[in-house]
Each structure stands twice: as structure tokens, then as C-alpha cells.
Specification:
CATH architecture of the domain at 2-85 and 153-230 in chain B: 3-Layer(aba) Sandwich
Oligomer: heterodimer
Distance between the termini of chain B: 36 Å
Largest sheet of chain B: 6 strands, mixed
CATH class of the domain at 42-288 in chain A: Mainly Alpha
Order of helices and strands of chain B: EEEHEEHEHHHHEHEHEEHH
Strand content of chain B: 25-35%
Low-confidence stretches of chain A: 351-356
CATH superfamily of the domain at 2-85 and 153-230 in chain B: P-loop containing nucleotide triphosphate hydrolases
CATH architecture of the domain at 42-288 in chain A: Orthogonal Bundle
Number of helices of chain B: 10
Low-confidence stretches of chain B: none
Structural class of chain A: mainly alpha
Number of strands of chain A: 4
Mean pLDDT of chain B: 91
CATH topology of the domain at 42-288 in chain A: ABC transporter involved in vitamin B12 uptake, BtuC
Strand content of chain A: under 5%
CATH class of the domain at 2-85 and 153-230 in chain B: Alpha Beta
Helix content of chain A: over 70%
Helix content of chain B: 25-40%
Amino acid sequence: MVATRTKRVIRLEPTDVFIYIIGALIVFVVVVGSIATLSQGKYSINAWVDLFVFGVTLGSIYSLIALGYTMVYGILRMINFAHSEVFMSGPFTAYFLAEAFSRSGFLNQSPVIALILIFALSMGTSVLVAVLIERIAYRPLRNAPRLVPLITAIGASFFVQYMFRGLYGTNIKVYPEIEALKGQITLGAFRVSYIQILVIVAAAAMMLGLHLFVQKTRTGKAMRAVAEDRSTAALMGINVDNIIVTTFILGGALAGAAGVLYALVFTQVHFFMGFIPGIKAFTAAVLGGIGNIPGAMLGGLFLGVIESLGPMLFLDGLGITAPYQLKDAIAFSLLVLVLIFRPTGILGERIREKKA
Amino acid sequence: MLELRDVHSYYGHIHALKGISLSVEKGEIVTLIGANGAGKTTTLRTISGLLHPRHGSIWLDGERLDGLPPDIIVRKGVGQSPEGRQIFPRLTVMENLEMGAYTRNDKEGIRRDLEHVFGLFPRLAERRNQPGGTLSGGEQQMLAIGRALMCRPRVLLLDEPSMGLAPLLVETIFNIIRELNREGTTILLVEQNAAKALAVAHRGYVIETGHIVLSDNAANLRQNDLVRKAYLGET
């Protein structure tokens, strides 16, 4: 009896073994690939710095979107899959304003005011879409089993996507470029374009603002209280519905801003544009530990940098041609790795399961 | 002041409260004693609006409470220290207390009440910047009571404040309850520790499987045969 029991403790499940082998393989490829690439010395330090800066830029955008996923998860314990459409709806709507500004010349006459208006319209649209989704699709299901709102979220995502396709058409629309943002700064090995500076500074400012809001204000503290225990929060006199709406407003505003930044970097918008960044940002939120606000910020930056540096660093040295096309594979391999070795994410802690 | 009239509550299909009627007058400590699962916590959850009664009505100073959402009921003056304390583990002691005062805007009054709570529970003052989850059980109970006081309740509902505490701490908590009452706080106290509860209370109700089976002043209940056998452990 005793012997069999000891055996059972030591025995590893075959799936665990398989998973660890996959994990070890990925780590092996990363290490060997990096050494091979660096020893060949094919790329200059400038090229690496460029890739890194681009990674931080992309990562800042992922972080902003990831915050929306993570805040909603923190409060409702559900993945808001429609968040990628919240992200798309803002810049897609603001495109028409940007285009009008561009045609009238206002965009280049006073780019600051024009940009502020474009951001305002984009953030406003995203907030409106986020709040409507919450009100119509999620709130009636607040006490339903967890799978129900999840499926609803996927449905809401498709609905919003195709609604915008119907509204604005299937064409890829080219976002007007702003003359004032075309230059770049060179600082030794550093070469940073104005757009990248705008993205990084704007994202950092918004994340700092969010952090202060959540930590210092009365509403922010109430958000944390609702995330920890909804019914006790109600016993404090907190209107839980209002706090949930506030969460969607914040997530929507960040996504709308992220959308304009994304459109400025990639200069195009279309109805399907939310899908990939949405899934990447979701990955970033899981990487950082879902439900954790600093985790989403960190996870986004981490993912952006790995995605940007990874293909060259890990794969080029192994003789793989056109490694950049494998950037998505690298991003998701990273997710697999984190889920194998640290299932709660980088900063995540085990979140208490909701009591009835 | 607080009055329940023939209140029936359900958990899904389970008929948990089968016609509860009770009242708490201004300045009183009234205790509701009963075994596990008798409906004590359900009664408090129904008063605070987490559960809506299917029949019957709940009144506070002539205003009807039943059917209102919990946050409005708090604003009307019902403060609760819930079962199992339920402090916010990752919020600091200070933030927990601030959440208790969520419904209020008078900065000066909040500051004074905060000092009052820290006066009652000096341990909380020492630990004000610590996350609530790092406190001991007794300290968490103090925080839960302090947090309920921060909304300046007209009626304070205390759910099992002695649960899981060492005897010395139980003594402290009951002294605090007496002290709060002397200051004029009206209290509805739910307890399994009937001996202690009847020692501080003016009146009491005994609840069994969703019915009130006895109600009397505390001194008489202590002498009652049923109470002595079932709840005081005497023979």
C-alpha cells in the first residue's frame, strides 16, 4: 500500500512530460538561435536599437489595449472578447474626421488641435461601443454561468465587427499622414521617429494617469473593492453597476487612444483591424497576469519587444529565411512558455475564485 | 426603528425565511440567536438588500427598505459587518475604512469618525497602511466593525462578530459592542455564542429553520428552558 502511494506521488502525467518537453524545446531554440545570430554579427547595433524602439512602440499600444481586458477581467471575471472591436471602432470612426481635416489642410496647419480632436472622437466612440456592449450584452447575464457571457462576448465581437463593416465598408482606408510627425531624432545609436515618441509618451502618460486614478481616487478604490468582493462592496454603499460601467469607460478610452496611435504607426484602418492587436493584447494581459494592472502594462511591453526583436534574434541565426513573418508564432510561443512555467503570468497571483 | 414584518426569503427554490417578524428600537441591542443554517445570516442579507424578500416588508423609521438595492439601503442608514468579516484583503486598513465611508462627502466628519474608530481599535491605527489580508482574525473583525461604523449607521448589523476568535478577543469585541451601544448606536447582533450575546443584549429572538420561535427580553431568555438546553449548553 505504502509503496504504491509513494509511486503515485512521483509519477508524472504524460501530458505534463509532453508540455515540459515543448517548453524545453522552445527555450533551446531561443538560446541556440540567439547565440548563432549574435556570433554571425550580421546586424549592427543600430539595427537592434531600431528593432527595440519599434518593439517598445508596439508594446505600448498592446499595453493600452491589454489594460481593458485585464480591468474587465478583474471586476467581472470574464474575458471581454469584444474589446478588440472597441479598439477598432474608435480609429475607424475618427478616420473620417482625419480625412476631412487632411483634405481641408487643417491637419497640417494646426496638427496639435487636429490630433486632439481625432483622439477625442476615437476615444468617445470606443467608450460608447464599450458601454453599449456592457449594457446590452453583459449586464443581463451578470448572474449567469460563466460560459454564457464568454460566448456572448464572441457574438458581440462579430456583431460590432460586421456592423462597422456595414457602416464604413470593407476597404482598407489609408490614414492621412501628418507632416509634423514625419521627422526623427538621432541620438548616437538611437534613432527615434516623432511618431514613436508620440506613441510612447502618450501611452506612458495614460498609464500613469490610470495608475493614479486606481490607487488614489475614491472611484478607483471602489473599483478595487468591487474587484475583490462584489457583494461586500455593495454593503459599503458602492453602486456596483456604476463601477462596472466606469471600468468599461476607462478600458474603452484607453483602447480608443491606442487605436489612433496604431493607425498613426501603420497608417491604415479597416473593419478587421482589431483582431490581431486584440489577440496580442489579450496575450499580453495573460503574460502579465490577468486581472493585474501593472501586469498588463509590463506584459504588453514585453510582448512588443519580443515580437520585434525575436524573429531576427532567435531565428535568423538558424538560417530561417524571412523570419519576420514568424513574429506571431514567436509571440504565441512566448505565451505557451509562460503558461507552462508560470501559469499565473509574470505578476499574477492566484485570483480568489468568486463565491456565490 | 428597524422592523421586519412577515418576511419570506428564498435561495432559488429553498424557502430560507418563513415569515420573520422582528423589531429593533432606537438605542437597543437586539440579538438574533440560532443554530447554523437557521436563517440568521439570511435575515441580515435580506435587510441589507443583498437578497430581496418575496413576501413581507422591511421598515426603517417608517421608510420601506425592501426592494431597494444594497447601496441605497446603506445610504438610508443600515451598516453591516458581514459574516466572515469580508474585509478587502488587498486594500490597506485605511482604504478599507475609506470604503466604509463611501457614501459620505463630509471630509471633516469622516476624519472625526476615523479618529473615533482608531480610538476604539488602537491596533488598526498602528496598521493603517498594511493590506487588510495581513491582519490577524481579531484585527480583521475590528476592521469589519470599524468599517461598518464609518457610514455612520442608524442601525448597525453585526453578523457573528465572535466567530473564530480566541476567548480574550471575544471579550474585547463584546466590550466594544457594549461601548458602541452606550454611545447611542442601535445594534442588531447575530450570534451563535448565545451566552455572550444575551449578556450584552436588551432583547433577543431565537430563530429555528426560518421561523422566530421565541422572543423576549434577554434576562428572561437566559432563564428559558429551551434556550438553556439548546443554546447555552446547560442541562
